[in-house]
Amino acid sequence: MKTILLAGTILMSVAGVSAARDIVIAQSSDLRSSNPGVNRDGNTDGVILHIVEGLVGYANNGEVKPLLAQSFDMSSDGQTYTFKLRPDVKFHNGKTLTADDVVWNWNRYLDPATKWTCLKDFDGSATLKVTGIKAVDTTTVSMTLDKPSAVFLGLMSRPECGYTGMISPDSIAADGTFDKPIGTGPFKWDEWKKGEYIHLSKFDQYVSPTNDGKPDGMVGSKRPLVDGIKFMVIPDASTVKAGLQSGVLDTAEISPDLIPEFEKSETAQVIISQNNGKNLFYIQTRDPVMAKPGLRRAIAMALDLDELVAAASNGTGKANGSMVSSDSLYFSETQQTRLPYDLEAAKKELADSGYKGEPISIIANKRGNVPSFPAAVIAQAMLQQIGLNVQIEVLDYATQVDRRRSGNYQIISQSVAPRLDPALMYSFYVGDKDKNASLMWDSPKAIELMKAAYAEIDTAKRQAIFDEFHELMLQEMPGIFLYDMIDVWGASKSLKGQPVWQSNARLWEVSLDK
Amino acid sequence: MIRFILNRLLMALPTVVIVSITVFALIRFIPGDPAALMLGDMATPDQVAGMRTELGLDKSMPEQFLVWSGNVLTGDFGRSIVNDEPVLPLVVSRFMVSAEIVIIAVVLASLIAVPAGMIAAWRQNSWTDLVLVGTATVLLSIPTFWLGLLLLLFFGLKLGWLPVLGYVSIGDNVVGGLLYLVLPIMTLVIHEAGVLIRMARASTLEVLRLDYITHARAKGLSESAVLWKHAFKNAFGPTWTMIGLILGNLLGGIAVIETVFTIPGLGRLMVDSIFQRDYPVIQGCLLFVALSYVVVNLIVDLLYPLFDPRVVAE
């Protein structure tokens, strides 16, 4: 038997199956494209995060801080931003980042031919328009807007925009097509075996932005501490679990129900991290049954939110009834208020609303990494206590998206990806339903407050806007916010550091024990 | 012979056309808009509409079908909605990965199952027969994903002999590549051997009851000569047909195995594409699977006369 074991082990080593000192991480789907902010999804954003950097980036608390910029200034009218670049920034091809590169990148992003996902946010078709970009000198860039905006810097830092990452013009092939991302991040593009893995290697010349020795969102200390990162495409959760237990994988997202097993494991550990995404019940306020605010408030008061969240999140989440994330700098005392859990008051509101036992359907999906289905099941049981006739309709994710976009639903148990500025979070839910049926809330006052939050630059005034918005939401209850999303990741015991941030892998300042 | 091949290929044409139309229509009846999935949460209705126009999804279904089938006739299977890759090279490269596993697995399963089935028939109603038939029934009853996970846990996790996930092409690293293939192949061999043992046993039993076998025994031939020299050729015919069907079926249908063992094969591509509503890739995969089914069965029919000369290709 010993001989057989030895032979097996030798065979494995001969085959070179054991990897070098790369962090090996699983992701559920392949990269969409390596072109930052163009044809992307969450997994693509996670890979791109390590390769490119924008002028600014989000810190943990949602504040936007300099990244490739050493500093930035805003003019008194709020319409001109001046970015001073860090002098020590090099692209992965060894060339130094200059103001001309920034101008080239922004012109490329704003060219419709690039098909940048975020073009509408900067070309005037949504809220603001970038009217000018110019290199003042080799390390200074100025950008002008058509009007002041509180979210200009936040918008350009978004994952969906590819972080508005600066790439070297050499990233474009001679025929004008995109070749590969030559960025400035701590890891550089190495190899993409489609359907199998993406490999990034350490960028030896990387210099972190100013920091206090710790990673802080997209800024802070960003040292690459391993030789490389291998993102393996593994769609099956059982295989991911086996990979983590065997040590083939160093880290990956796992289902929350594996927490007890991983906590007991001698070889693996659990990493739990809150992010700014939202788990909520998205309500169709134009549905004949759901149109009455009293009924929606009754639903909210019939839910024991603390119990629901504890069960749906396997004890990892904390109830938060606000659209503002609990680790945001705008999470004030007002944001912490929510309707009380009060069955008698709920029954009274229900009776006043004229509800007569009409069926109410909650749409849910069974994707393993979101609490859509468990939250719906627990809510169904709680809502039956006040006499609501609740059914659950389980759909696949693509169909659920279709139903939400067409407005054809009553309640959807939904998770929404992180947006670090509250105003950007509002924009997912609030607006004119006649123009965009996927929106949740079309109260004129809410729309007005959202627009004000987009424009207002002063932090204290923004706080007042967000608080007023929250109070209005508690009155009209267009949706019921349950808790901020939780990232539950497994990792080998040898992994040191925090490998996840805002649902994306973030593998700088992460190391492996020898 | 050439006329036979041409006839068979012409006969396959309606099958391929029906498959194409059915797949094309069915995937579009499933709710879920590829443009909306592609653009994600932040897309406005205008952007989604623009993307639908760009992808040609705003046209009527017959119009879309005519455009697609016209392009297919010129060898253009379109481009993936998800990553803009040309579909045909994508499908072919993934098919090669699946074919590598399936062909090895079916050959191994046949080498094990055919003799085992014949021995079971030869020893009908004995303990050997009972054990072989019982084992075969158990093997074919085990779901492949569960068997795959068990093998993965035992050989990968408990013993640590074989890699639990990943894939290395044999072209890149022969030993490494083979190691990654052991578990998926073993899973398929175990399952398919169960099916083939029962088939080989049944067809051998039928042949052993025929007069010419009694005659051979009466001539004083040894049992092994009777079995291998006289019974085998006739008994193998139906099993050979079954092997062809299994091969055709597996070439496009090992998505579960590929998902469990993280193998970038055709089945996984197809399943991923369905979730992403990547219409051109789904259509390309299924058309390719239908064609491979036709070709495999044609090859099986052409080789049939080797085992049973009474069957002539013409």
TrEMBL record, chain A:
Keywords: Signal
Domain Solute-binding protein family: 63-427
Compartments, as annotated in UniProt: Periplasm
Annotated signal peptide: 1-20
InterPro entries, per the entry: Peptide/Ni-bd (IPR030678), SBP_5 (IPR039424), SBP_5_dom (IPR000914)
Major location category of this protein: periplasm
Entry-linked Pfam families: SBP_bac_5 (PF00496)
Domain of life: Bacteria
Family under the similarity heading: Belongs to the bacterial solute-binding protein 5 family.
Name of the protein in question: Peptide/nickel transport system substrate-binding protein
Organism for this UniProt entry: Rhizobium herbae
Species lineage: Bacteria, Pseudomonadati, Pseudomonadota, Alphaproteobacteria, Hyphomicrobiales
TrEMBL record, chain B:
Alphabetized Pfam families for the sequence: BPD_transp_1 (PF00528), BPD_transp_1_N (PF19300)
PROSITE patterns listed in its UniProt record: ABC_TM1
Mode of membrane association: Multi-pass membrane protein
Alphabetized Gene3D superfamilies for the sequence: MetI-like (1.10.3720.10)
Domain of life of the native organism: Bacteria
Main location as per UniProt: membrane
UniProt record similarity statement: Belongs to the binding-protein-dependent transport system permease family.
Name of protein: Peptide/nickel transport system permease protein
Source species of the chain: Rhizobium herbae
